User: What shape does this take?
Amino acid sequence: RLGTKLFTTDPLVAQAIRPLAGSLFTSAVLHSVICSAEGILLVRNDLTFLARLYAVSAVLMPAVLIMMKRRAATLPAVWASFVVFQAVRAVILNLRVRLFTPTNHNI
Assistant: This one.
């Protein structure tokens, strides 16, 4: 209950938010992991990889959301898809950070 008070005092909104708490928390945690990895790749000038990842993301995630809308997905299901999206991005970006060796060693 304390968590919902951070977002709203409206009991109906609080009731709607409660089932999303786990997904919201997980998304926030993954977001920090993603931002860190993106920052490292930006510093390493791995722009082609990032551009390709963003392009694929810009096509896939809206397509998933459209599909979910057509199937009348629940709000928790939509947020679960965001968590999966963030988790996949976190894995891909962090694998790239660990496996990619910059060609410019003057960084």
